[in-house]
Amino acid sequence: MSTTDFDLIVVGGGPGGYVAALRAAQLKLSVAVVEANHLGGICLNWGCIPTKALLRASEINHLLHDLGQFGFTVDNPRFDFGKVIGRSRAVSKQLSSGVAHLLKKAKVPVFDGFGKLAGVEGKKRKVEVALKDGKSVTLKAPHVILATGARARVLPGLEPDGKFVWSYREALVPDELPKRLLVIGSGAIGTEFASFYRNMGSEVTLVEVADRVLPVEDEDISKLARTAFEKQGMKILTGAKLGPLKKSDKDVTVEIEVGGKKETITIDRVISAVGIVGNVEKLGLEGTKIVVDRTHVVTDELCRTGEAGVYAIGDLAGAPWLAHKASHEAVMCVEAIAGLHVHPIDVTKIPGCTYCRPQVASVGYTEAKAKAAGYEVRVGRFPFIGNGKAIAMGEPEGLVKVVFDAKTGELLGAHMIGAEVTEMIQGYVIARTGELTEAELKETIFPHPTISESMHEAVLAAYGGALHF
Amino acid sequence: MAIEILMPALSPTMTEGKLARWLKKEGEKIASGDVIAEIETDKATMEVEAVDEGVLGRIFVPEGTEGVAVNTPIAVLVEEGEAVPEASSAQPNEAPSSSKAAAPVTAMPAPLAAQTSAPAVNKGTRVFASPLAKRIAKDAGLDLTTIKGTGPHGRIVKKDVEAAKSAGPAQAMASAAPVGGTTAHPLSTMRKVIARRLSESKSTIPHFYVSVDVQLDALLALRTQLNAASPEEGPDAFKLSVNDMLIKAAAVTLRRVKGVNVSFTDDAILEYNDVDISVAVSIPDGLITPIIRQADRKSLREISVEMKDLAKRARAGKLKPEEFQGGSFSVSNMGMFGVSSFSAIINPPQAAILAIAAGEKRPVVKADGSLGVGTVMTTTLSVDHRAIDGALAAQWTKAFRDVVENPITLVI
Ligand SMILES: Cc1cc2nc3c(=O)[nH]c(=O)nc-3n(C[C@H](O)[C@H](O)[C@H](O)COP(=O)(O)OP(=O)(O)OC[C@H]3O[C@@H](n4cnc5c(N)ncnc54)[C@H](O)[C@@H]3O)c2cc1C
To answer: Which cellular compartments is it found in (chain A) (predicted)?
Structure first.
């Protein structure tokens, strides 16, 4: 392989990078991907996908212990934890090699190595790749997309130690099921792990500095999530201040202060899920006009950095840290490079999902944020208890909440908790993206019986009354 | 494929009408939205707009033909270069399903105008805009055709409308039609109808005007007395306006001087048996004339209740065609704007319209010859000289003054 000249070089092969390369190939640009570890990035290897495989297993475990309500009796359901973890890894592997296959089919060369910016030659930028076999190669292209992603934030005292303290990485490949687990941070990642381990049988304590779990979600949703988790036997401490971890050779003790009251708990493992930091190091950003703000590359709305011809997308470019945001930015950025007309991303149209039990999904403004932004709002709520399908499924706990602009009928936000909501939120995302108003949503005919009918009912509730509640 | 254009129904009850005029000739190119013909009944005139595009292949019904049954093919639209059928395929009243090339658009007692919700108002060009963008534009009174879309495939989205809104009308138009120092506001269908009908009225009807000052004090006193008799609330409550009373006064006068309740046609002067008063109501971007039918026979309270309902629905664009088409005489009241006098343009095919200005305190000579202060308004009757002569007009205005100044006639 001799070609080192391209139209576009993509550094990083996650959902940002590999999608950028696939789109560029579709648009007949010559493009190469540089990937230091594994195609598919965090998402396929250590993020979205393996966690979903695990959460599926824990959901099955929950159902196995809840079969009575459906009339089944199964004696002593058991699982092999190693196989549960093994399946999750196999799923990741299958998808990662799927990405390799897609890139091959699109004739996109992949350079296995660590890439960095290495100056300019004529009108081209150079990317130096330290290949895995120790050699190095210099690639050239007028356009470079940086998509190096992010990694877990490490707080002092909570460093992963290979034994007691885990980041999401270790939490995805444990040797055994911890009996007592402390999860620090109730964002999407922390909550998903708390849910997985609790539903597999661990005693889980979830601590959060903010005054509620899933703090970016609407307050109503946080409240219902907390109630549901506590019903499952999870211990939840919000507004919590964590003391230093005291490790013995068998376990860990920590003092937690909530509202002036202190309590000490002993656990076998600790998962630290306190956010992520961008992979900005050793990228050759020094001496360029590329600006880094708190570990993230600063870009404009079209993902351009301060340096002409260099772009940053995905987790590297900042919040929201979501795979679909990375992929969408990838497509937009490549299309702009190819000279197509593109539309900048509006973060209030990016859905966010947390795959805990019950699931949580949302898009747009929470009620509080809408009010803070100066909107006069109309809010509708519909609980799953009024939904036939939810009851038939044995999933009567859930809520759909919609927030409309009272003046224009714009759907400002939608917030859901309950079974299948992560599969349903797209309906509201389409409504928001297509700028539908309450009128079109009211006129939309939803299939019966589906849990999605509660999305319709919530809209009706905001405008004069739900039919089934 | 040849598409037949059918005689449209002006109202649900219309069975036939007169094909008054062709506005396009055989062989002429037609774009969808073009006005191709005018249809008349005894009560109203309506334009026929093309829904499809093509070439006007053949006219089956010549202009001036009376008694054309609804759904009769009146012409055929063909594609360019396509053979033109000799005669219409369908028998009258048998509407082939593809015969939908014409739509009744603007029913119109002019001077006043068509209703925005008239069927199939089709501007010919479809505007692509998100529902939210449409709603915000409507609320802000912005015309979407003047806004540039930046969404997918040039679709107009919220952002574009908000930009246009904050930029103001001049800015919104700048990209569409910068014409020297002016700003072009494209005509709405209603505005076009108003323009055409009023020009036609003013250029074909020989107008003349008769003004008379009318003292209102007695009428105002009666109004106070009558309103005091209304129950506080409940279904029987009413609140008469001066306008309600003047509508009735005009109706009573028309009953007395029947020669003004007429229409001029080439063959005859048609005297209406009923007194149906068209009342001008201003609505966004124009005006419309809902009708108080048989106003001379209705009580003041009936007129008041009906007028309130009609005006409210007129502003909401919710009038039915038969509620604003027809009428035998018009009243236009600009008193609320404080004008001291004005004259109005006749609403064809009617022959007269009464313009009512504001009641003002003015010096008056009382019955005993002494000077006093009274509430006086100037009313001006515009008349079609082809049907009504000066003496008759003067007789009418005098009778009107008598009725208003001796308003007891309105309640007996
Ligand atoms: C546990 C967990 C669960 C998650 N669940 C979800 C979820 O359910 N839904 C969701 O939308 N998001 C989820 N996320 C977030 C999601 O994984 C990220 O938003 C997404 O992976 C970001 O994509 P990216 O392409 O920007 O970066 P990454 O996926 O991080 O990919 C970056 C790639 O670049 C490579 N790289 C880094 N530096 C270099 C270099 N210098 N040279 C060459 N290669 C380099 C890395 O090896 C990596 O493969 C989850 C994250 C975690 C940790």
So the answer is: Cytoplasm
